[in-house]
Amino acid sequence: MARKKIIAGNWKMNMTPSEAVALVNTLKPLVVNDEVDVVFCVPAIDIIPVLQAAEGSNIQVGAENMYYEEKGAYTGEISPAMLTDVGVKYVVLGHSERREYFAETDATVNKKVLKAFEHGITPIICCGETLTQREQGVTMDFIRQQVKIAFQGVTADQAKTAVIAYEPIWAIGTGKTATTAQAQEVCAGIRACIAEVYDEATAEAIRIQYGGSVNAATAPELFAQPDIDGGLVGGASLKPDFGKIVNYK
Ligand code: PGA
Questions:
Q1: Do residues 210 and 187 touch, judged by C-beta distance below 8 A?
Q2: 212 close to ligand 1 (CB < 6 Angstrom)
Q3: Which 8-state DSSP code applies to residue 116?
Q4: Quick check: 50 pLDDT over 90?
Q5: Contact (Cβ atoms closer than 8 angstroms) between residue 203 and residue 229
Q6: Which residues are catalytic?
Q7: Average per-residue pLDDT in the chain?
Q8: Which of 46, 51, 67, 119 is the most exposed place for a label (fewest CB within 10 A)?
């Protein structure tokens, strides 16, 4: 069975609630495409207004982070039940910016992944190497470690529904997209890693996105690769260009 493409915007720390509503209203008619899952991953405070603005459209809403405890004394955090209560279906976990600035580790990402599945939220699990790691030739070793730890304790049935976003850190926000060949090579490597950890059926089912300076010009070739099932899009998801990315064909 062919995997359905998933194209997600990652707004990062952009858009006030009123700006968010205006952006959804602009993008709503542009991102119509039944062949693709379209997800807007937005700041926590924007989730409810974005859900309301997106009502009746094909836009699904995701969070950019989530904590791994149910509730309690964790000032500033968002719980899984808070997300599901309002209808959030996806959560970005382990983005490199969270790893770099907010001390996320493979171990905390794993806890969050397990918690997301427990609550029926689909995790978009991010991985990706630094430029130094690429130059040192350890890209695949590093990513295999990130992926294997993120999936510890995850069942094959859960893993089949997960999304992995391969985002080389040197390509994020730099305008420097990985070449199609580089992106395909790593996404295929991630799929092989999932096949080793689980089985071929799980590897065939799991969706793997590419992220890092995706734009309307680079999306068609990237998304045509056999192991690239869509994209996680930062900067370009805040512009009408996102409609072109969603309708990349
Ligand atoms: P970018 O961000 O598209 O702006 O490079 C991608 C991401 O960090 O998810």
A1: yes
A2: yes
A3: H
A4: yes
A5: no
A6: 95, 167
A7: 97
A8: 119
- Going from the Cα of 76 to the center of ligand 1, the distance in angstroms, rounded, reads 24
| pTM attached to this predicted model | 0.98
Read out DSSP for 203-244?
A: HHHSEEEEESS--TTTHHHHHTSTT--EEEESGGGGSTHHHH
173 lines ligand 1 (CB under 6 A): yes
Q: Which of 232, 239, 244, 245 to mutate to test the pocket of ligand 1 (most atoms within 8 A of CB)?
A: 232
Residue 139 · residue 145 · CB < 8 Å:
no
Category of 51 on φ-ψ map: left (φ > 0), alpha (ψ -120 to 50) or beta: alpha
Q: What are phi and psi of 72, to 5 degrees?
A: 125, -155
**How many Cβ atoms are within 10 Å of 158's Cβ, its own excluded?**
18
Contact 227, 187 (CB under 8 A): yes
pLDDT computed for residue 9 by the predictor: 98
The mean pLDDT value for 208-230 works out to 97
Task: Write the DSSP assignment of 22-84 as a string of letters.
Answer: HHHHHHTTTS--TTEEEEEEE-GGGHHHHHHHHTTSSEEEEES---SSSSSS-TT---HHHHH
Helix, strand or coil for residue 123?
A: strand
Residue with tokens 């990513």: 143
Mutation to probe ligand 1, out of 233, 241, 245 (largest number of atoms < 8 A from CB): 233
**Per-residue model confidence as pLDDT tens digits over 143-198:** 999 999 999 999 999 999 999 999 999 999 888 888 999 999 999 999 999 999 99
Tokens of 129: 């190497």
